[in-house]
Design brief:
6 helices; 173 residues; alpha+beta; single chain; Endonuclease I-creI
Length: 173
């Protein structure tokens, strides 16, 4: 890939991309918190998103839910994030999004490299990093405080699980 294409991608991603990690509650998981990393870019022009998707070689372009006039390039598959997106972004020289990308990459790699053996301490580190990432974006808002999230992580409330459900195999310590 030539420098012109990489420069175009770097500028566009620096200006428009979002690196986010949702922390979803899932009662059937051992630690009840599931980090969900997502890379996205929203535009009204699907052509530019299709072009970026073709050079990143991952993700999908869809209508933005609730805003049909907008399209969104989204990469949320952990394997695609680790094996395609991160190696591509490592080639770029992000300026504005350097710090969000550094934190996002650390979270993705920790999740991807520890899928079946994620410990409470690893998950706690990911939660702290997710809150750190949120602080870098003035538009970011968390439903729960860090304290509430850590209390959920540390609770071992078996009664909260739906009856007859087993602990999910993924993200367990």
């Amino acid at each position: 890939m030539d420098d012109y294409i990489l420069g175009y991608a770097a500028g566009f991603i620096d200006a428009e991309a979002s690196f986010s990690v949702s922390l979803k509650l899932q009662r059937d998981l051992r630690y009840r918190v599931r980090p969900d990393p997502v890379f996205s870019i929203t535009q009204s022009n699907a052509e530019v998103l299709d072009f970026l998707r073709s050079i990143i070689e991952c993700g999908r372009v869809i209508e933005k839910p609730g805003q049909r006039h907008l399209k969104i390039l989204i990469v949320d598959n952990l394997d695609e994030l680790k094996d395609k997106l991160i190696p591509f972004l490592d080639k770029l020289h992000l300026r504005v999004k350097h710090e969000p990308y550094r934190i996002f990459k650390k979270i993705v790699l920790k999740l991807a490299n520890n899928k079946r053996k994620l410990t409470r301490e690893m998950l706690k580190e990911i939660i702290f990093l997710s809150f750190e990432l949120s602080k870098l974006n003035s538009k970011s808002a968390r439903r729960r405080s860090l304290k509430e999230t850590l209390e959920i992580l540390n609770s071992r409330d078996e009664a909260a699980r739906p009856p007859g459900r087993k602990v999910a195999k993924c993200l367990v310590g």
